[in-house]
Amino acid sequence: MKLRKLVFAVFGLLLLTTSGTSFYRSRHLEEAVVLSPGVSEVKKLGDYFEGIRGTVNDCNIYIMEGEEPGGTVFVMGGTHPEEPAARLAAWILAENAVMEAGRLIVVLSSNRSASLVTRVGGAYPPDFSIPTDWGERTFRLGDRWADPLDQWPDPEVYIHYPSGQFLAFVDIRNLNRTWPGRPDGSLTERTTHAFMELIRQEKVDLFIDLHEAELQYPVISTIVAHDRGEELAAFTSMMLSDMEFNMGMEYSPPSLHGLSHREVGDHSDAVSLLFEAPEPFLDATRGKTTREQLLTGKDEFVVKAGKAGLLFEKMDENGWPVDVRVGRHTSAVLMTMETWSELNPDRPLRCRGVPRYDEIIALGLGHWLHDPSAAPPERVEIE
Amino acid sequence: MTRQSRWIVGPVALTLMLMTGVGSVQAQDADVVGETPVLLTSCGQSPGPTFVKLFLGRLEMDFELLDQATAQDLIDAQSAGNPFKSIIIVTGASLKGMGAAGVSMREELIRTEALIAEAKGQGLTIIGAHVEGMDRRAQGAAAGDNSDEQSIDAVMPFSDVMVIRQDGNEDRRFTVLSEAEGIPLILFVKNMEMGDAFGRVLKK
């Protein structure tokens, strides 16, 4: 009896040690950012709202002043870190974009706490690596929600502020359910409040929130547009569909609260858009939850779901590789800037150095991720 | 296409799209030409009417967009002495769009049926439009949801002419309907050709 207890205790300790080590490494994995020559300033979110300063969500804000005046566009990655193409597309911007006209603000870890943890009980890989021209870069996988270690406990019911709408309890840690936030709220609510302050103080004209979606979700491969962004989104959608890849458009429902495409537009002067790219990793019918599945977007079970008519996007044995998903986002951002400039010639946005869809597919997104060890230390930031 | 050429081609294409009237459109003889003013509406609350609106605006057409236009709107316009002469009903269902409008697909179908009946009664030219390709074909809110197809069934057989983005006709659904019912079919390939397509079926 004693021996059996001892064996179980040792086995439990072994599990605790190995998993604990993995969790610790995941939470403390440092991700480097080699600043683009276009980055003129790196600020912290806490510079805009004292209530977030020094917290886990006091993330970096990369600002690229244009060579000529123009509008201001804010591109947000990392709202849901388990949607890595969204973060990686923002990474490509931070490491390569040079603004010729207007100003670009980029965030890579908007819910940084959520990037430090993976889905509890989801058996997610803790990280993934992207091959580059000089080696590989490793990134945290992250989760959809902020780490319970950073924000706990969850309420029985999450009542969204200020609408009073009832939402799922766990979504009080979901950055895309807590807009526009509040200064004395939870960590995630304070984070969105800080971003709203950034948007107001920096006089952002155009806000773009990058995401990925499961193929069983009807809002996929699309732009979700606030009322004031409908014309911009419609033109961008049509141009992308004509020239690069199919891209739809959806209206932001006025009664669905807490989401960036609704609240940023309602509570600031910025036009707000949200982009969705397909990510089979998120599908409930997926097979093994592995790094390979994450990066190749291949999954035989999701293919079967497609054959059963359960998907809202095409899915075959080619999958949805991360290069395709990142390329969709960079092209969509660039096309939005071009369309914006046509519709708002007094506030142009012109950018160079950022690869489009076909370039990323041809060369791989790692081609645009630079070697931190070869860069001057003052041009390297840690996420 | 190189990055440099894309920066040239992109704005040029966008400018052409804004100007409209550029590109080739496959069509039967468009002997149905509606007059203005035009009532533009939706059956299914997809963003399609927003796409059409952009081109009608560039064509300087006299039109009004009412996402949930009713038969009463047609009656009111007639009573006011400024009746609509044509109506464009854009098909395709959007869960977000219907949610935003606070309507169900069933309500959309009831509204559309009454709208078409009134339009027929007033002698309007009815233009059925499907402009978002396969994104709005049988890809409803859940498996088995055929809201897109319901919206097409509610509008297209009663139309005087159909304007369709070609990739939405990959199963020849609209071609079959056109041949069976004798409804002229205007197909356009690229979005930037949409203005040309509507220019063929409407006169100012």
Describe the structure.
The complex is a heterodimer of chains A (383) and B (204). Helix content of chain A is 31%, strand content 20%. Chain A has nine helices and 15 strands. In chain A, strands 2, 3, 4, 5, 10, 11, 12, 13 and 14 form a nine-stranded mixed sheet that branches. In chain A, strands 1-15 form a two-stranded antiparallel ribbon. A two-stranded antiparallel sheet of chain A has the order 6-7. In chain A, helix 8 (322-343) packs antiparallel against helix 9 (357-363). Chain A is globular and about 80 Å long. By secondary structure, chain B is of the alpha/beta class. In chain B, helix 2 (48-58) crosses helix 8, helix 3 runs parallel beside helix 5 and helix 5 packs parallel to helix 6. The A-B interface holds A 218-219, 221-222, 224-225, 230-231, 233-235, 237-239, 241-243, 246, 248-256, 308-310, 312, 335, 338-339, 341-342, 355-356, 358-359 and B 1, 3, 6-7, 9-11, 13-15, 17-18, 45, 47, 50-51, 54, 94-97, 99-100, 102, 132-133, 135, 139-144, 190-192, 194.
Outline the fold blueprint:
The complex is a heterodimer of chains A (383) and B (204).
Chain A: H1 2-28, E1 32-34, E2 41-44, E3 60-65, E4 68-76, H2 84-96, E5 98-107, E6 127-131, E7 136-140, E8 158-159, E9 166-167, H3 187-201, E10 206-213, E11 222-225, H4 230-243, E12 248-251, H5 260-267, E13 271-278, H6 291-296, H7 300-307, H8 322-343, E14 350-352, H9 357-363, E15 380-382
Parallel strand pairs in A: 4-5, 4-10, 10-13, 11-12
Antiparallel strand pairs in A: 1-15, 2-3, 3-5, 5-14, 6-7, 8-9, 11-13
Helix pairs in contact in A: 2-8, 4-8, 8-9
Chain B: H1 3-19, E1 25-27, E2 34-35, E3 38-43, H2 48-58, E4 63-65, H3 71-79, E5 86-91, H4 95-101, H5 105-122, E6 125-130, H6 147-155, E7 161-165, H7 173-181, E8 185-188, H8 194-201, E9 202-203
Parallel strand pairs in B: 2-9, 3-4, 3-5, 5-6, 6-7, 7-8
Antiparallel strand pairs in B: 1-8
